[in-house]
Write a structure and sequence with these properties.
heterodimer, A: alpha+beta, five-stranded antiparallel sheet, 5 helices, globular, B: alpha/beta, five-stranded mixed sheet, two-stranded parallel sheet
Chain lengths: 181, 104
C-alpha cells in the first residue's frame, strides 16, 4: 500500500476546521482504516487545530494553520503547526495528570460525580493524550509543532480478523481419584 | 442549527438536527439547548441520533446547557459511537445519563 503524505493549510477560523476534518477522513478512508481509528484521528486533529486558533492565534483570522499527515498501514502521524503564541510548557503534563485523575473516576457509578462539579472546557488535550499513542510539543524557528502518532497495524489486524488459528484448547485436567481412607 | 422539541406524556424530547457539534457551532448549540431546556422541569431526553461528530467545545456547550436546565432529570439518547467515545473518555458519562442506543 502506498503511504499517504499530505500537507494541508487552512486559515485560522473555526468554520474552516470541518474541511480539514473531511479531507483527513477521506484520506484515511482511502487507506481502509477502521472507522473508529478515523474518528480518533479526526477528533485529535480537530482539538489540536481548535487550540491553535483559539489560543495561539486568539481567534484572529488570517493566520495559517498547517497540518502534515503521514499515514501507512502501520501508523499515522499528524503534525499541527502554527506561528502563534506557544502553549505553556506545562500544558501537556497538566493534561496527563488530569486524565489520570479522571481515570480514577472510572469505577464511580452514575451520579456520584455531580454535574455541577464537572468542567465545561479544557478536555481537548486530554482527549488527544487518551486517544493517541504519542504526543509531543516543541517550538522551532518561530513555529510551534504538536506531533501526534497512533499505531494502526492494519495488516496485522486484517490477519487476525480472517482467523488465525485459535490456540489449542488446554488438555483436560486428569481427575485425581479420591484417596481411599 | 435547528433544535426541535416534542412533548409526550409529561416527557420532553429535544432533538439536535446537526451532524457536527464542534467549536464553530458551540455558542449556537449552547443558546439553542438552553432555550429548549429552559421551558419546563419535566423528564427530558436529548436525542443526538443525527450527531456524527462532537469535539470538546461541543461537549462543553452540552454540559453548560444541562447545568443551567430547569429539569434535573435529563438523559442523552441515540448517541453514536464517536459521541459515546467522547462522553466516556472525558468521564462526562459519570455525571450525565447516556441511554443505550436502542432505547426509544
Amino acid at each position: 500500500m502506498v503511504d499517504a503524505q499530505l500537507h494541508l493549510i487552512i486559515s485560522s477560523e473555526l468554520c474552516q476546521v470541518r474541511f480539514l476534518s473531511a479531507a483527513v477522513r477521506a484520506v484515511l478512508g482511502e487507506l481502509s482504516y477502521p472507522s473508529e481509528r478515523i474518528s480518533a484521528v479526526e477528533l485529535c486533529l480537530v482539538e489540536a487545530v481548535n487550540n491553535v486558533i483559539e489560543h495561539a492565534y486568539r481567534e484572529e483570522a488570517g493566520h495559517s494553520v498547517a497540518l502534515r499527515i503521514q499515514a501507512s498501514a502501520a501508523r499515522v502521524e499528524v503534525v499541527v503547526s502554527d506561528a502563534g503564541i506557544s502553549m505553556p510548557e506545562e500544558s501537556l503534563a497538566h493534561a496527563r495528570a488530569r486524565q489520570r485523575e479522571l481515570a480514577g473516576q472510572e469505577s464511580l457509578s452514575l451520579a456520584e460525580v455531580e454535574l455541577d462539579s464537572i468542567a465545561e472546557g479544557g478536555y481537548g488535550l486530554g482527549l488527544i493524550i487518551e486517544l493517541m499513542d504519542q504526543v509531543t510539543y516543541h517550538r522551532d524557528n518561530g513555529r510551534n509543532f504538536l506531533t501526534m502518532s497512533l499505531q494502526v497495524d492494519l495488516d496485522q489486524a486484517a490477519g487476525e480478523s480472517v482467523g488465525a488459528a485459535s490456540p489449542p484448547a488446554p488438555e483436560p485436567a486428569v481427575p485425581i481419584p479420591p484417596t481411599s481412607s | 442549527m435547528r433544535i426541535s422539541t416534542s412533548r409526550n406524556d409529561g416527557a420532553t424530547t429535544v432533538r439536535v438536527h446537526s451532524a457536527r457539534l464542534d467549536a464553530a457551532v458551540a455558542d449556537e448549540l449552547r443558546s439553542g439547548l438552553q432555550a429548549a431546556l429552559g421551558e419546563n422541569d419535566e423528564q427530558t431526553v436529548i436525542d443526538l441520533a443525527e450527531v456524527t461528530f462532537i469535539d470538546s467545545s461541543g461537549l462543553g456547550a452540552l454540559i453548560a446547557s444541562l447545568k443551567s436546565a430547569k429539569s434535573k432529570d435529563i438523559a442523552i439518547s441515540n448517541a453514536q459511537p464517536s459521541v459515546r467515545t467522547v462522553l466516556r473518555m472525558t468521564r462526562v458519562d459519570r455525571s450525565i445519563r447516556v441511554l443505550p442506543s436502542n432505547a426509544p
